[in-house]
User: What shape does this take?
Amino acid sequence: MTRIFLTGATGFLGRELLLRLLRRDTEVMTLVRPRGDEGTAEAYARIREVVQALEPEAPASGLRVTLGDVAAPELGLAPEGRAFLLEAEGPVQIVHGAAQVRFDLPWEVMEKQNIRGTEYVLAWAWRLHELGRLHRLDYVSTTYVAGDRTDLVLETELSRGQTPRNGYERSKLLAEELVEAARKEGLPVTVHRPSIIVGDSRTGRASSFKVLYWPLKVYARGRWRTVFGRPDCPVDVVPVDFVADAMNALLDDPAATGRTVHLAAGPERQSSIGALAQMAEVFFEGPKVRYVDPDFYVKYVRPMVHPILKLLRPDVVNQGIVFLPYLRSNPSFDVRVASELLAPHGVSPPPVESYFETIMAFARDQAFGREVEEG
Ligand SMILES: NC(=O)c1ccc[n+]([C@@H]2O[C@H](COP(=O)([O-])OP(=O)(O)OC[C@H]3O[C@@H](n4cnc5c(N)ncnc54)[C@H](OP(=O)(O)O)[C@@H]3O)[C@@H](O)[C@H]2O)c1
Assistant: This one.
Protein backbone atom coordinates (compact mmCIF):
# COMPACT_ATOMS: atom_id res chain seq x y z
CA MET A 1 0.00 0.00 0.00
CA THR A 2 1.12 3.55 -0.75
CA ARG A 3 2.66 5.65 2.01
CA ILE A 4 0.00 7.70 3.79
CA PHE A 5 0.08 11.28 5.08
CA LEU A 6 -2.80 11.57 7.55
CA THR A 7 -4.33 14.62 9.23
CA GLY A 8 -6.79 14.33 12.12
CA ALA A 9 -5.26 11.10 13.46
CA THR A 10 -5.94 11.99 17.11
CA GLY A 11 -9.67 12.46 16.43
CA PHE A 12 -12.67 10.17 16.85
CA LEU A 13 -12.61 8.89 13.28
CA GLY A 14 -8.91 9.47 12.54
CA ARG A 15 -7.61 7.20 15.32
CA GLU A 16 -9.81 4.31 14.13
CA LEU A 17 -8.54 4.75 10.58
CA LEU A 18 -4.94 5.02 11.80
CA LEU A 19 -5.31 1.73 13.70
CA ARG A 20 -6.48 -0.04 10.55
CA LEU A 21 -3.64 1.41 8.47
CA LEU A 22 -1.04 0.36 11.04
CA ARG A 23 -2.46 -3.16 11.11
CA ARG A 24 -1.63 -3.33 7.40
CA ASP A 25 1.94 -2.36 8.10
CA THR A 26 1.56 0.78 6.02
CA GLU A 27 3.92 3.69 6.64
CA VAL A 28 1.71 6.47 8.01
CA MET A 29 2.97 9.99 8.65
CA THR A 30 0.53 11.63 11.05
CA LEU A 31 0.36 15.40 11.23
CA VAL A 32 -0.11 16.16 14.92
CA ARG A 33 -0.94 19.59 16.30
CA PRO A 34 1.40 20.08 19.28
CA ARG A 35 -0.06 20.66 22.73
CA GLY A 36 1.79 23.51 24.42
CA ASP A 37 5.52 23.19 23.84
CA GLU A 38 5.29 19.49 23.00
CA GLY A 39 8.09 18.21 20.77
CA THR A 40 7.96 15.41 18.18
CA ALA A 41 8.91 12.72 20.71
CA GLU A 42 6.11 13.71 23.10
CA ALA A 43 3.60 13.92 20.23
CA TYR A 44 4.70 10.47 19.06
CA ALA A 45 4.21 9.07 22.57
CA ARG A 46 0.75 10.65 22.72
CA ILE A 47 -0.45 9.23 19.43
CA ARG A 48 1.06 5.84 20.24
CA GLU A 49 -0.98 5.89 23.45
CA VAL A 50 -4.13 6.82 21.52
CA VAL A 51 -3.68 3.78 19.26
CA GLN A 52 -2.79 1.45 22.15
CA ALA A 53 -5.92 2.52 24.01
CA LEU A 54 -7.85 1.12 21.04
CA GLU A 55 -5.74 -2.00 20.68
CA PRO A 56 -2.92 -2.68 23.17
CA GLU A 57 -1.00 -4.86 20.74
CA ALA A 58 -1.43 -2.51 17.77
CA PRO A 59 1.62 -2.58 15.49
CA ALA A 60 3.56 0.66 15.48
CA SER A 61 6.38 -0.02 13.05
CA GLY A 62 4.77 2.18 10.37
CA LEU A 63 3.82 5.05 12.68
CA ARG A 64 5.53 8.38 12.00
CA VAL A 65 4.81 11.78 13.47
CA THR A 66 5.36 15.31 12.28
CA LEU A 67 4.27 18.42 14.13
CA GLY A 68 2.05 20.74 12.13
CA ASP A 69 -1.13 22.76 12.04
CA VAL A 70 -3.53 22.52 9.11
CA ALA A 71 -4.61 26.11 9.65
CA ALA A 72 -1.07 27.40 9.03
CA PRO A 73 0.45 28.08 5.60
CA GLU A 74 2.10 24.96 4.16
CA LEU A 75 0.44 23.13 7.11
CA GLY A 76 3.18 24.51 9.35
CA LEU A 77 5.03 21.29 8.64
CA ALA A 78 8.07 20.29 10.67
CA PRO A 79 11.12 18.95 8.74
CA GLU A 80 10.06 15.30 9.24
CA GLY A 81 6.80 15.96 7.43
CA ARG A 82 8.43 17.84 4.56
CA ALA A 83 11.01 15.11 4.08
CA PHE A 84 8.26 12.46 4.03
CA LEU A 85 6.38 14.34 1.33
CA LEU A 86 9.26 15.59 -0.78
CA GLU A 87 12.19 13.24 -0.35
CA ALA A 88 11.23 9.74 0.81
CA GLU A 89 10.89 7.05 -1.80
CA GLY A 90 7.55 6.33 -3.49
CA PRO A 91 4.30 8.22 -4.01
CA VAL A 92 2.21 9.56 -1.15
CA GLN A 93 -1.52 9.40 -0.50
CA ILE A 94 -2.81 12.36 1.50
CA VAL A 95 -5.79 11.68 3.76
CA HIS A 96 -7.22 14.93 5.10
CA GLY A 97 -9.57 14.31 8.01
CA ALA A 98 -8.62 17.16 10.37
CA ALA A 99 -11.38 19.68 10.92
CA GLN A 100 -13.12 21.72 13.53
CA VAL A 101 -16.40 19.87 13.97
CA ARG A 102 -18.25 22.02 16.51
CA PHE A 103 -21.44 23.68 15.30
CA ASP A 104 -21.30 26.74 17.52
CA LEU A 105 -17.93 28.40 16.95
CA PRO A 106 -17.38 31.83 15.35
CA TRP A 107 -17.16 31.84 11.56
CA GLU A 108 -13.53 33.10 11.61
CA VAL A 109 -12.52 29.88 13.39
CA MET A 110 -14.45 27.61 11.00
CA GLU A 111 -13.15 29.47 7.97
CA LYS A 112 -9.55 29.26 9.13
CA GLN A 113 -9.62 25.63 10.25
CA ASN A 114 -11.82 24.04 7.63
CA ILE A 115 -11.50 26.18 4.50
CA ARG A 116 -7.95 27.55 4.78
CA GLY A 117 -6.88 24.16 6.15
CA THR A 118 -8.22 22.43 3.05
CA GLU A 119 -6.57 25.05 0.82
CA TYR A 120 -3.19 24.34 2.41
CA VAL A 121 -3.72 20.60 1.96
CA LEU A 122 -4.66 21.17 -1.69
CA ALA A 123 -1.54 23.27 -2.22
CA TRP A 124 0.60 20.35 -1.02
CA ALA A 125 -1.39 17.91 -3.13
CA TRP A 126 -0.83 19.97 -6.30
CA ARG A 127 2.85 20.35 -5.54
CA LEU A 128 3.29 16.60 -5.09
CA HIS A 129 1.14 15.93 -8.16
CA GLU A 130 3.35 18.16 -10.27
CA LEU A 131 6.41 16.38 -8.92
CA GLY A 132 4.81 13.03 -9.82
CA ARG A 133 4.74 12.09 -6.13
CA LEU A 134 0.98 12.16 -5.37
CA HIS A 135 -0.92 8.90 -5.43
CA ARG A 136 -4.25 10.47 -4.47
CA LEU A 137 -5.90 12.95 -2.11
CA ASP A 138 -8.62 11.41 0.07
CA TYR A 139 -10.71 14.15 1.60
CA VAL A 140 -13.12 13.65 4.52
CA SER A 141 -16.22 15.74 4.02
CA THR A 142 -19.70 15.18 5.46
CA THR A 143 -23.10 14.30 4.02
CA TYR A 144 -24.30 17.50 5.71
CA VAL A 145 -22.73 19.64 2.99
CA ALA A 146 -26.30 19.13 1.74
CA GLY A 147 -27.40 21.74 4.32
CA ASP A 148 -31.14 22.35 4.48
CA ARG A 149 -32.08 20.05 1.61
CA THR A 150 -34.86 17.63 2.49
CA ASP A 151 -34.85 15.38 -0.58
CA LEU A 152 -32.64 12.47 -1.61
CA VAL A 153 -29.07 13.71 -2.02
CA LEU A 154 -26.95 11.98 -4.63
CA GLU A 155 -23.25 11.33 -4.25
CA THR A 156 -22.70 13.11 -7.55
CA GLU A 157 -24.31 16.32 -6.26
CA LEU A 158 -22.69 19.11 -4.28
CA SER A 159 -23.94 22.69 -4.68
CA ARG A 160 -27.66 22.65 -5.49
CA GLY A 161 -28.70 26.00 -4.00
CA GLN A 162 -28.92 24.61 -0.46
CA THR A 163 -28.46 26.80 2.61
CA PRO A 164 -26.04 25.50 5.25
CA ARG A 165 -27.62 25.31 8.71
CA ASN A 166 -24.58 26.40 10.72
CA GLY A 167 -20.95 27.48 10.34
CA TYR A 168 -19.74 23.88 10.32
CA GLU A 169 -21.93 22.91 7.38
CA ARG A 170 -21.02 26.12 5.53
CA SER A 171 -17.30 25.63 6.03
CA LYS A 172 -17.44 21.98 4.92
CA LEU A 173 -19.49 22.89 1.83
CA LEU A 174 -17.06 25.62 0.79
CA ALA A 175 -14.09 23.35 1.50
CA GLU A 176 -15.56 20.51 -0.57
CA GLU A 177 -16.19 22.96 -3.41
CA LEU A 178 -12.45 23.70 -3.40
CA VAL A 179 -11.67 19.98 -3.52
CA GLU A 180 -14.22 19.48 -6.28
CA ALA A 181 -12.65 22.30 -8.33
CA ALA A 182 -9.24 20.67 -7.94
CA ARG A 183 -10.65 17.33 -9.07
CA LYS A 184 -12.07 19.01 -12.17
CA GLU A 185 -8.63 20.47 -12.86
CA GLY A 186 -7.13 16.98 -12.82
CA LEU A 187 -6.08 16.25 -9.25
CA PRO A 188 -6.68 12.57 -8.32
CA VAL A 189 -9.21 12.88 -5.51
CA THR A 190 -11.68 10.74 -3.55
CA VAL A 191 -14.25 12.43 -1.33
CA HIS A 192 -15.60 10.48 1.67
CA ARG A 193 -18.81 11.87 3.13
CA PRO A 194 -19.78 10.16 6.40
CA SER A 195 -23.18 10.96 7.92
CA ILE A 196 -23.51 11.13 11.74
CA ILE A 197 -20.79 8.95 13.25
CA VAL A 198 -21.45 7.09 16.50
CA GLY A 199 -19.50 4.46 18.46
CA ASP A 200 -18.23 1.08 17.33
CA SER A 201 -21.12 -1.24 16.49
CA ARG A 202 -19.51 -4.24 18.22
CA THR A 203 -18.07 -2.62 21.37
CA GLY A 204 -19.87 0.73 21.56
CA ARG A 205 -16.46 2.38 21.86
CA ALA A 206 -16.40 6.10 21.11
CA SER A 207 -13.68 8.58 21.94
CA SER A 208 -16.03 11.51 21.78
CA PHE A 209 -19.71 11.97 22.48
CA LYS A 210 -20.99 14.62 20.14
CA VAL A 211 -23.99 15.23 17.89
CA LEU A 212 -26.43 12.33 18.48
CA TYR A 213 -25.12 11.67 21.98
CA TRP A 214 -26.00 15.08 23.38
CA PRO A 215 -29.82 14.86 23.21
CA LEU A 216 -29.63 11.24 24.39
CA LYS A 217 -27.45 12.27 27.33
CA VAL A 218 -29.94 14.96 28.31
CA TYR A 219 -32.77 12.42 28.13
CA ALA A 220 -30.78 9.72 29.98
CA ARG A 221 -30.12 12.08 32.86
CA GLY A 222 -33.82 12.66 33.18
CA ARG A 223 -33.41 16.36 32.56
CA TRP A 224 -35.54 16.67 29.47
CA ARG A 225 -38.08 14.69 27.51
CA THR A 226 -39.58 17.21 25.12
CA VAL A 227 -38.29 17.13 21.56
CA PHE A 228 -38.84 20.21 19.47
CA GLY A 229 -38.91 18.11 16.37
CA ARG A 230 -40.82 15.66 14.23
CA PRO A 231 -40.81 11.94 14.96
CA ASP A 232 -40.73 11.11 11.24
CA CYS A 233 -37.65 13.31 10.60
CA PRO A 234 -34.99 11.03 9.05
CA VAL A 235 -31.67 10.60 10.85
CA ASP A 236 -28.76 8.89 9.15
CA VAL A 237 -26.37 7.32 11.63
CA VAL A 238 -23.30 5.15 11.03
CA PRO A 239 -20.94 3.43 13.46
CA VAL A 240 -17.30 4.49 13.44
CA ASP A 241 -16.08 0.95 12.64
CA PHE A 242 -18.08 1.01 9.40
CA VAL A 243 -16.70 4.43 8.39
CA ALA A 244 -13.11 3.47 9.21
CA ASP A 245 -13.42 0.06 7.50
CA ALA A 246 -14.96 1.65 4.42
CA MET A 247 -12.27 4.33 4.17
CA ASN A 248 -9.54 1.77 4.78
CA ALA A 249 -10.90 -0.34 1.90
CA LEU A 250 -11.41 2.57 -0.49
CA LEU A 251 -8.02 4.17 0.18
CA ASP A 252 -6.46 1.23 -1.54
CA ASP A 253 -9.02 0.89 -4.32
CA PRO A 254 -8.28 2.56 -7.66
CA ALA A 255 -11.99 2.31 -8.56
CA ALA A 256 -12.66 4.98 -5.91
CA THR A 257 -10.42 7.58 -7.57
CA GLY A 258 -12.45 10.53 -8.83
CA ARG A 259 -15.55 9.42 -6.90
CA THR A 260 -17.54 10.81 -3.99
CA VAL A 261 -19.06 8.31 -1.57
CA HIS A 262 -21.75 8.66 1.04
CA LEU A 263 -20.52 6.64 4.02
CA ALA A 264 -24.06 6.64 5.26
CA ALA A 265 -26.84 4.23 6.18
CA GLY A 266 -28.81 5.33 3.13
CA PRO A 267 -32.56 5.62 2.56
CA GLU A 268 -33.24 1.93 3.27
CA ARG A 269 -31.39 1.77 6.59
CA GLN A 270 -31.65 5.30 7.92
CA SER A 271 -33.44 5.85 11.22
CA SER A 272 -35.77 8.63 12.43
CA ILE A 273 -36.13 10.86 15.46
CA GLY A 274 -39.12 8.79 16.57
CA ALA A 275 -37.36 5.43 16.19
CA LEU A 276 -34.28 6.65 18.08
CA ALA A 277 -36.44 8.13 20.84
CA GLN A 278 -38.33 4.85 21.20
CA MET A 279 -35.10 2.91 21.53
CA ALA A 280 -33.89 5.42 24.14
CA GLU A 281 -37.13 5.07 26.11
CA VAL A 282 -36.64 1.32 26.28
CA PHE A 283 -32.90 1.39 26.97
CA PHE A 284 -33.01 4.03 29.72
CA GLU A 285 -36.42 2.88 30.98
CA GLY A 286 -37.44 6.50 30.76
CA PRO A 287 -40.71 8.33 30.21
CA LYS A 288 -42.31 8.69 26.79
CA VAL A 289 -40.79 11.46 24.70
CA ARG A 290 -43.13 14.36 23.90
CA TYR A 291 -42.97 16.14 20.57
CA VAL A 292 -43.58 19.83 19.99
CA ASP A 293 -43.78 21.02 16.39
CA PRO A 294 -40.51 22.90 15.82
CA ASP A 295 -42.12 25.66 13.73
CA PHE A 296 -44.76 26.25 16.40
CA TYR A 297 -42.01 26.29 19.02
CA VAL A 298 -39.83 28.83 17.19
CA LYS A 299 -42.77 31.12 16.38
CA TYR A 300 -44.83 31.07 19.56
CA VAL A 301 -43.17 29.25 22.44
CA ARG A 302 -39.54 30.24 22.19
CA PRO A 303 -40.00 34.01 22.46
CA MET A 304 -41.85 33.51 25.77
CA VAL A 305 -40.01 30.66 27.45
CA HIS A 306 -36.51 31.19 26.07
CA PRO A 307 -35.38 33.88 28.58
CA ILE A 308 -36.61 31.80 31.54
CA LEU A 309 -35.17 28.55 30.20
CA LYS A 310 -31.85 30.24 29.55
CA LEU A 311 -31.65 31.05 33.24
CA LEU A 312 -32.80 27.64 34.46
CA ARG A 313 -31.18 25.33 31.90
CA PRO A 314 -28.52 27.27 29.95
CA ASP A 315 -26.85 24.04 28.78
CA VAL A 316 -30.04 22.64 27.31
CA VAL A 317 -30.91 25.94 25.61
CA ASN A 318 -27.49 26.67 24.13
CA GLN A 319 -26.90 23.20 22.75
CA GLY A 320 -30.57 22.71 21.87
CA ILE A 321 -30.58 25.71 19.52
CA VAL A 322 -27.71 24.21 17.57
CA PHE A 323 -29.50 20.88 17.18
CA LEU A 324 -32.97 22.25 16.46
CA PRO A 325 -32.71 22.17 12.64
CA TYR A 326 -31.62 18.51 12.75
CA LEU A 327 -34.79 17.56 14.62
CA ARG A 328 -37.07 19.27 12.15
CA SER A 329 -35.99 17.92 8.76
CA ASN A 330 -33.02 16.24 7.18
CA PRO A 331 -32.19 14.95 3.73
CA SER A 332 -31.72 11.27 2.96
CA PHE A 333 -28.45 10.17 1.44
CA ASP A 334 -28.25 7.98 -1.60
CA VAL A 335 -25.52 5.35 -1.24
CA ARG A 336 -25.43 3.74 -4.67
CA VAL A 337 -21.83 4.69 -5.45
CA ALA A 338 -20.60 3.66 -1.99
CA SER A 339 -22.49 0.35 -2.10
CA GLU A 340 -21.11 -0.49 -5.53
CA LEU A 341 -17.53 0.32 -4.47
CA LEU A 342 -17.75 -1.32 -1.05
CA ALA A 343 -19.52 -4.54 -2.10
CA PRO A 344 -16.31 -6.27 -3.30
CA HIS A 345 -14.72 -5.42 0.07
CA GLY A 346 -17.65 -6.89 2.02
CA VAL A 347 -18.23 -3.64 3.91
CA SER A 348 -21.74 -2.32 4.54
CA PRO A 349 -23.40 -0.20 7.24
CA PRO A 350 -25.45 -2.05 9.86
CA PRO A 351 -28.84 -0.55 10.80
CA VAL A 352 -28.71 1.44 14.04
CA GLU A 353 -31.36 -0.80 15.64
CA SER A 354 -28.78 -3.61 15.65
CA TYR A 355 -26.20 -1.71 17.78
CA PHE A 356 -28.10 1.07 19.57
CA GLU A 357 -27.95 -0.74 22.93
CA THR A 358 -24.22 -1.38 22.53
CA ILE A 359 -23.35 2.27 21.90
CA MET A 360 -25.67 3.52 24.64
CA ALA A 361 -24.27 1.05 27.19
CA PHE A 362 -20.74 2.27 26.42
CA ALA A 363 -21.80 5.93 26.57
CA ARG A 364 -23.61 5.40 29.88
CA ASP A 365 -20.58 3.60 31.37
CA GLN A 366 -18.42 6.54 30.32
CA ALA A 367 -20.96 9.00 31.75
CA PHE A 368 -21.26 10.33 28.17
CA GLY A 369 -17.68 11.62 28.41
CA ARG A 370 -18.64 13.92 31.29
CA GLU A 371 -15.08 14.56 32.38
CA VAL A 372 -14.02 16.00 29.04
CA GLU A 373 -17.08 17.47 27.43
CA GLU A 374 -19.68 18.38 30.00
CA GLY A 375 -22.38 20.59 28.63
N1 LIG B 1 -18.05 12.93 13.87
C1 LIG B 1 -18.99 12.93 12.93
O1 LIG B 1 -20.16 12.61 13.19
C2 LIG B 1 -18.62 13.28 11.51
C3 LIG B 1 -19.60 13.12 10.51
C4 LIG B 1 -19.29 13.42 9.19
C5 LIG B 1 -18.04 13.87 8.86
N2 LIG B 1 -17.09 14.05 9.84
C6 LIG B 1 -15.76 14.54 9.43
O2 LIG B 1 -14.79 13.59 9.86
C7 LIG B 1 -13.58 14.27 10.17
C8 LIG B 1 -13.15 13.86 11.58
O3 LIG B 1 -14.18 14.20 12.50
P1 LIG B 1 -14.13 13.71 14.03
O4 LIG B 1 -15.51 13.61 14.52
O5 LIG B 1 -13.20 12.58 14.15
O6 LIG B 1 -13.50 15.01 14.71
P2 LIG B 1 -12.61 15.16 16.02
O7 LIG B 1 -12.74 13.99 16.93
O8 LIG B 1 -12.92 16.51 16.57
O9 LIG B 1 -11.13 15.17 15.44
C9 LIG B 1 -10.67 16.23 14.71
C10 LIG B 1 -9.22 15.98 14.38
O10 LIG B 1 -8.73 17.09 13.61
C11 LIG B 1 -7.57 17.58 14.24
N3 LIG B 1 -7.41 19.02 14.00
C12 LIG B 1 -8.34 19.97 14.15
N4 LIG B 1 -7.82 21.18 13.84
C13 LIG B 1 -6.52 20.94 13.50
C14 LIG B 1 -5.45 21.77 13.10
N5 LIG B 1 -5.60 23.10 13.00
N6 LIG B 1 -4.27 21.20 12.79
C15 LIG B 1 -4.10 19.87 12.92
N7 LIG B 1 -5.07 19.03 13.31
C16 LIG B 1 -6.26 19.57 13.60
C17 LIG B 1 -7.75 17.28 15.71
O11 LIG B 1 -6.52 17.36 16.36
P3 LIG B 1 -6.35 17.79 17.91
O12 LIG B 1 -6.26 16.49 18.65
O13 LIG B 1 -5.11 18.59 17.93
O14 LIG B 1 -7.56 18.61 18.28
C18 LIG B 1 -8.33 15.88 15.61
O15 LIG B 1 -7.30 14.95 15.35
C19 LIG B 1 -13.86 15.76 10.01
O16 LIG B 1 -13.39 16.18 8.75
C20 LIG B 1 -15.37 15.85 10.07
O17 LIG B 1 -15.85 16.97 9.36
C21 LIG B 1 -17.35 13.75 11.14
Remarks:
- The pocket of NAP is lined by residues 7-14, 31, 33, 69-71, 97-101, 113, 140, 142, 172, 194, 196-197, 208, 211 (CB under 6 Å).
- Residues 3-206+237-269+332-350 form a domain with the Rossmann fold fold (CATH 3.40.50.720).
- The chain has a mean pLDDT of 93.
- DSSP finds 13 helices and 15 strands in the chain.
